[in-house]
Design brief:
Mean pLDDT: 89
Strand content: under 5%
Strand order of the largest sheet: 1-2-4-3
Number of strands: 4
Length: 353
């Protein structure tokens, strides 16, 4: 779904072996959500996979032309990059080529089984539409003038869980069939990914995917601090746009990992400062603290991954508390991570010995 400090890591483990967990948790830091405007918004998810898989007979070239006209660039993207029906190349595949390869694809036993299982679990997506409506109403209020994406669902076992292009946002239902789904072990994916292949993560992943497509830019890749602050912005946006989403879902942490992160916030911040990571511009050094994973190498086994994102989240929360009533739109327009840190007054809570 978007990686030597060997001495530093050894020091880190030593630091954390001397401190206990505790102090302020999520409830004390969570900001007030954006008020939902008094207007109606009807979210409708287009079921692309149902249109593809339920035609009942072989798709001919006229059917391919219809799909190309209806879905435009998304259909081309799905054929080439998501489903892999036709190989990528400079030449645009013909209707005949797509029809031939698609019929083979749709009659594959494995592919059809994934569709049947997806239909059984997600035949009705009205629950998701209803959950998305207040989120996107808040999004409209937070980012006036920004268009809302057209949402669709698709299957492409097992290439991606979220797709964004232009004004379109797609969800790959094949990645949310439950962590015990029969085909997931064959993918040989890491445990932290399998654990999150549950329907409870769909709304969170859609919102994160859309925010990234709209606001991730070069300024977020300048150095470790820039990455931390950008990730913090996204997590803060999810605080105020989707307040019913638990912090464990937003972060991808287990409840125990989330408790650990809050309980060691002071030591985490000290580590980033003492190891001079904030202004490090070498992705090979700092992305291990930003990217997802089962854990962070060299840290205690209880520590989760993405600890840089977690600290960035706390910095942004502190910044927004000090700058009320700054809007979410204004926050995302601020691209100077150092200025945000300096003006945040961020000071992690003291931890009990």
């Amino acid at each position: 779904m978007i990686h030597k400090i060997k001495i530093a890591l050894l020091v880190f483990v030593s630091i954390f072996s001397t401190f206990g967990c505790g102090q302020k948790g999520a409830e004390e830091k969570r900001p007030e959500p954006i008020e939902i405007p008094e207007k109606e918004l009807k979210i409708k998810i287009i079921r692309f996979e149902e249109e593809i898989f339920t035609r009942g007979k072989a798709i001919d070239t006229s059917g391919i032309r219809q799909l190309r006209e209806k879905y435009g660039d998304f259909f081309e993207l799905w054929c080439v990059q998501l489903a892999g029906i036709v190989p990528p190349g400079k030449r645009k595949p013909s209707d005949v080529e797509i029809a031939y390869n698609m019929n083979q694809y749709l009659n594959d036993r494995y592919i059809r089984q994934v569709f049947y299982d997806s239909e059984k679990k997600f035949k009705d997506l009205r629950w998701l539409e209803q959950e998305l409506e207040p989120v996107f109403l808040r999004y409209q209020a937070a980012f006036p003038g920004k268009p809302l994406p057209q949402l669709l669902s698709y299957l492409s076992p097992f290439s991606s869980n979220i797709m964004t292009m232009d004004s379109m946002l797609g969800i790959g239902l094949h990645f949310y069939l439950g962590k015990d789904y029969q085909f997931y072990p064959s993918l040989q994916l890491p445990g932290y990914m399998i654990r999150k292949m549950e329907k409870e993560y769909i709304l969170n992943d859609l919102l994160r995917g859309w925010l990234d497509s709209e606001y991730f830019n070069d300024s977020a890749q300048k150095n470790c601090l820039a990455q931390m602050i950008y990730q913090g912005k996204v997590l803060y946006a999810m605080d105020v746009l989707s307040p019913d989403t638990p912090d464990s879902i937003k972060t991808g942490y287990s409840a125990a990992q989330l408790k650990w992160a809050y309980g060691h916030e002071e030591q985490l911040w000290s580590f980033f400062i003492e190891q001079q990571l904030l202004y490090n511009s070498n992705p090979k050094v700092y992305l291990k603290y930003i990217h997802d994973g089962n854990s962070t190498s060299g840290f205690p086994k209880e520590a989760p991954a993405r600890l840089g994102a977690f600290i960035g989240w706390q910095i942004v929360r502190s910044y927004m508390r000090k700058h009320e009533p700054l809007t979410l739109k204004a926050l995302f327009e601020l691209n100077d991570a150092q200025a945000i840190l300096a003006a945040s007054g961020y000071k992690p809570p003291k931890q009990a010995l």
